[in-house]
Design a protein that fits this description.
Helix content: 40-55%
Shape: elongated
CATH class of the largest domain: Alpha Beta
Radius of gyration: 25 Å
Number of domains: 2
Oligomer: single chain
Length: about 400
């Protein structure tokens, strides 16, 4: 019997009262793994060979830009940024480099020199704290902020560097301060504004309000200036806020692999990509997403949690009898589409993964029979029952080695 149409098998409440697309724009993705991600206090700054591999995999995922570092941090940062930019040139990668910089000549000059040395255009992400709490702590006034901003943009103009002006802690900054700074940098040629939720303060309402306010300000200037969104995850809203940012007008959104970064981290760019793929907003090939995140995990010594969405070891594993039986029945129909969705809201195959059935104390006989067939072991009479009986005495899932030992004992 032919399988019913997909829409008949899954009623999708997610699409009720929702317009078909989040945005009509071609939204871009910006990877902060190699810069902001390295600010995580438990993160290890990896050797350049690992950074090159991470950059290549980001390129393979269709990520548009990558922050390759802050050269003003010192000689090693200069070496690594230069190597990453040269790698883009030598291997003809599509991904474009950006560099972070304070509004200070000592941060900006090395970026200009690296761009000239490699012949590669580099976007400068020039950042400055603008929230009143930061200004109070630093004893800054608005005139000082505007002067620093103007000086930085004018230097970049002289060096033919694209300017993305980044206001730190934008979500807690006063509109009159943002208006003065934004108008000043736009007037002098800034091509992008990055709105930052630096301390993870924003809720979806805050994202909407800030982006819509900024869009109106830009429209008033008559200039073609793009909006970036840069979010952190302190409230656990990093991914959700990023999706809201896209819906309300962001042209490019930032994140890091596995959400690494300072404190509890940045928005997880891998999860943003996964959700946009499932929403039908992008058609990127994400089968190498696991390779990218694994490369980051290994290089930066950041273990991927077992239950991490899609990429954790448990994401597509089940040992529960009822769940496993449903997956097995779907597989026996020879229907990979069905097997990948019967007990999974995320199709494993889209992301280079597969459904895995284990044996544990909550398993049924079908779990054991499926495991034996999958490992090409003849299901002799009584073998499956013997393994299941042993599994019922345990308080966890059996390892493959333990199952093979039970098979040998039965023989």
């Amino acid at each position: 019997m032919a399988r019913p149409d997909e829409s008949e098998l899954i009623f999708d409440w997610n699409t009720r009262r929702r317009r078909w697309r989040l945005t009509d724009k071609h939204v871009e993705f910006h990877d902060e793994t190699l810069r902001d991600g390295l600010q995580g206090p438990s993160i290890v700054d990896p050797p350049i060979e690992a950074k090159l591999r991470i950059l290549e995999l980001a390129d393979a995922l269709g990520i548009h830009t990558s922050d390759v570092g802050l050269p003003g941090a010192g000689p090693r940062a200069v070496e690594d940024v230069t190597a990453l930019c040269q790698h883009i040139v030598d291997h003809k990668l599509k991904i474009r480099p950006t560099c972070a910089a304070r509004t200070h000549i000592n941060d900006l000059r090395p970026i200009a020199e690296i761009s000239q040395k490699t012949g590669l255009p580099i976007e400068v992400m020039c950042f400055l704290g603008t929230s009143p709490i930061r200004s109070y702590a630093e004893a800054w006034d608005q005139d000082r902020l505007i002067k620093l901003s103007i000086d930085a943009v004018e230097f970049c103009n002289r060096e033919n560097l694209v300017v993305n002006f980044v206001t730190e802690d934008t979500v807690r900054s006063r509109p009159e301060t943002l208006s003065a700074i934004f108008n000043a940098v736009i007037e002098r040629g800034a091509q992008r504004l990055t709105l930052c939720d630096t301390v993870g303060h924003a809720t979806p309402d805050g994202v909407r309000n800030l982006i819509e306010w900024t869009r109106h300000l830009i429209e008033g200037t008559g200039c073609d200036v793009k909006i970036d969104w840069h979010g952190h995850n302190d409230r656990g809203l990093g991914v959700v806020n990023t999706i809201y940012a896209i819906e309300h007008g962001a042209d490019r959104v930032h994140g890091t692999a596995l959400g690494i970064g300072e404190r509890v981290g940045n928005a997880a760019l891998d999860q943003v990509l996964i959700n946009l793929k499932l929403l039908g907003e992008i058609d990127n090939d994400l089968t190498k997403l696991g390779l990218w995140c694994s490369a980051v995990s290994q290089a930066m010594r950041w273990p991927i949690p077992q239950n991490y969405p899609v990429l954790g070891d448990d994401a597509f594993r089940t040992a529960t009898g009822v769940h496993a039986a449903a997956v097995i029945k779907a597989q026996r129909k020879g229907d990979d589409w069905l097997a990948d969705r019967i007990y999974s809201g995320v199709p494993a195959g889209l992301f280079g993964k597969k459904q895995v059935i284990e044996i544990g104390h909550m398993s049924g006989l079908s779990n054991v029979q499926h495991w034996l067939v999958g490992h090409r072991i003849e299901p002799k009479e009584g073998l499956a029952e013997s393994i299941l009986s042993a599994a019922k005495t345990r308080n966890r899932v059996l390892t493959n080695e333990e199952i093979l030992d039970l098979v040998e004992e039965f023989a």
